[in-house]
Amino acid sequence: MVLLENDSFLTELTRLFQKCRTSGSVVITLKKYDGRTKPVPRKGHAESFEPADNKCLLRATDGKKKISTVVSTKEVIKFQMAYSNLLRAHMDGLKKKDKKNRKHYG
Protein backbone atom coordinates (compact mmCIF):
# COMPACT_ATOMS: atom_id res chain seq x y z
CA MET A 1 0.00 0.00 0.00
CA VAL A 2 1.31 3.41 -0.95
CA LEU A 3 0.93 6.26 1.54
CA LEU A 4 0.51 9.50 -0.43
CA GLU A 5 0.12 13.19 0.28
CA ASN A 6 -3.47 14.47 0.15
CA ASP A 7 -3.24 16.12 -3.29
CA SER A 8 -1.49 13.19 -4.92
CA PHE A 9 -4.03 10.82 -3.31
CA LEU A 10 -6.86 12.74 -4.98
CA THR A 11 -5.15 12.63 -8.39
CA GLU A 12 -4.49 8.89 -8.06
CA LEU A 13 -8.09 8.37 -6.95
CA THR A 14 -9.22 10.19 -10.09
CA ARG A 15 -7.10 7.81 -12.16
CA LEU A 16 -8.63 4.81 -10.37
CA PHE A 17 -12.15 6.10 -11.09
CA GLN A 18 -11.32 6.66 -14.77
CA LYS A 19 -9.76 3.20 -15.09
CA CYS A 20 -12.81 1.51 -13.54
CA ARG A 21 -15.43 3.59 -15.39
CA THR A 22 -16.45 0.89 -17.87
CA SER A 23 -16.01 -2.17 -15.69
CA GLY A 24 -14.83 -2.77 -12.18
CA SER A 25 -15.27 -0.93 -8.90
CA VAL A 26 -13.35 1.25 -6.48
CA VAL A 27 -13.57 0.54 -2.75
CA ILE A 28 -12.92 3.45 -0.37
CA THR A 29 -12.56 3.07 3.39
CA LEU A 30 -12.19 5.74 6.04
CA LYS A 31 -11.26 5.33 9.68
CA LYS A 32 -9.83 7.18 12.64
CA TYR A 33 -6.04 7.06 12.78
CA ASP A 34 -3.98 7.72 15.89
CA GLY A 35 -0.53 7.37 14.35
CA ARG A 36 0.30 3.91 15.65
CA THR A 37 2.05 1.44 13.42
CA LYS A 38 2.07 -1.49 15.87
CA PRO A 39 -1.01 -3.16 17.37
CA VAL A 40 -1.99 -2.56 20.99
CA PRO A 41 -1.15 -5.47 23.33
CA ARG A 42 -4.23 -7.14 24.81
CA LYS A 43 -2.86 -7.88 28.27
CA GLY A 44 0.08 -6.75 30.31
CA HIS A 45 1.20 -3.17 30.63
CA ALA A 46 -1.42 -0.78 29.33
CA GLU A 47 0.41 2.32 28.26
CA SER A 48 -1.70 5.41 27.90
CA PHE A 49 -1.04 6.64 24.37
CA GLU A 50 -2.57 10.04 23.64
CA PRO A 51 -2.35 11.20 20.03
CA ALA A 52 -1.40 14.83 19.46
CA ASP A 53 -4.40 15.41 17.20
CA ASN A 54 -7.12 13.38 15.53
CA LYS A 55 -6.42 12.12 12.03
CA CYS A 56 -8.33 10.18 9.37
CA LEU A 57 -6.91 7.35 7.30
CA LEU A 58 -8.39 6.98 3.81
CA ARG A 59 -7.73 3.92 1.69
CA ALA A 60 -8.81 3.23 -1.88
CA THR A 61 -8.34 0.14 -4.01
CA ASP A 62 -9.55 -1.28 -7.29
CA GLY A 63 -8.53 -4.81 -6.36
CA LYS A 64 -5.04 -4.48 -7.83
CA LYS A 65 -3.70 -1.08 -6.83
CA LYS A 66 -3.96 0.26 -3.28
CA ILE A 67 -3.46 3.88 -2.23
CA SER A 68 -3.87 5.63 1.11
CA THR A 69 -3.48 9.00 2.80
CA VAL A 70 -3.67 10.49 6.28
CA VAL A 71 -5.65 13.71 6.74
CA SER A 72 -4.95 15.85 9.80
CA THR A 73 -7.51 18.09 11.51
CA LYS A 74 -6.02 21.23 9.98
CA GLU A 75 -6.51 19.96 6.43
CA VAL A 76 -9.95 18.32 6.83
CA ILE A 77 -12.08 21.16 5.41
CA LYS A 78 -9.91 21.69 2.33
CA PHE A 79 -9.57 17.95 1.68
CA GLN A 80 -13.26 17.25 2.21
CA MET A 81 -14.28 19.91 -0.33
CA ALA A 82 -11.92 18.51 -2.98
CA TYR A 83 -12.90 14.91 -2.13
CA SER A 84 -16.65 15.61 -2.38
CA ASN A 85 -16.20 17.37 -5.74
CA LEU A 86 -14.23 14.38 -7.02
CA LEU A 87 -16.93 11.94 -5.86
CA ARG A 88 -19.69 14.01 -7.47
CA ALA A 89 -17.81 14.10 -10.76
CA HIS A 90 -17.29 10.34 -10.90
CA MET A 91 -20.59 9.02 -9.49
CA ASP A 92 -22.38 9.30 -12.83
CA GLY A 93 -21.58 5.73 -13.87
CA LEU A 94 -23.73 4.14 -11.18
CA LYS A 95 -26.40 1.69 -12.22
CA LYS A 96 -29.96 2.21 -11.05
CA LYS A 97 -31.55 -0.55 -9.02
CA ASP A 98 -34.18 -2.65 -10.72
CA LYS A 99 -37.54 -1.91 -9.18
CA LYS A 100 -39.46 -5.15 -8.97
CA ASN A 101 -43.17 -5.41 -8.50
CA ARG A 102 -43.55 -5.63 -4.78
CA LYS A 103 -46.87 -6.50 -3.30
CA HIS A 104 -47.51 -4.92 0.04
CA TYR A 105 -49.31 -7.20 2.41
CA GLY A 106 -51.06 -5.50 5.17
From TrEMBL:
Pfam family, one: SRP14
Species this protein is from: Oreochromis aureus (Israeli tilapia)
Cited InterPro entries: Signal_recog_particle_SRP14, Signal_recog_particle_SRP9/14
Location of this chain's protein in the cell: Cytoplasm
Record's function text: Component of the signal recognition particle (SRP) complex, a ribonucleoprotein complex that mediates the cotranslational targeting of secretory and membrane proteins to the endoplasmic reticulum (ER). SRP9 together with SRP14 and the Alu portion of the SRP RNA, constitutes the elongation arrest domain of SRP. The complex of SRP9 and SRP14 is required for SRP RNA binding.
Gene Ontology BP, a term: SRP-dependent cotranslational protein targeting to membrane
Matches recorded under SUPFAM superfamilies: Signal recognition particle alu RNA binding heterodimer, SRP9/14
Alphabetic keyword roster: Cytoplasm, Phosphoprotein, Ribonucleoprotein, RNA-binding, Signal recognition particle
Molecular function via GO: 7S RNA binding; endoplasmic reticulum signal peptide binding
Protein's name according to its UniProt entry: Signal recognition particle 14 kDa protein
Encoding gene, per UniProt annotation: SRP14
Subunit structure: Heterodimer with SRP9; binds RNA as heterodimer. Component of a signal recognition particle (SRP) complex that consists of a 7SL RNA molecule of 300 nucleotides and six protein subunits: SRP72, SRP68, SRP54, SRP19, SRP14 and SRP9.
Presence of the UniProt keyword Isomerase in the record: no
Gene Ontology annotations for the cellular component aspect, listed alphabetically: cytosol; signal recognition particle, endoplasmic reticulum targeting
Main location: cytoplasm
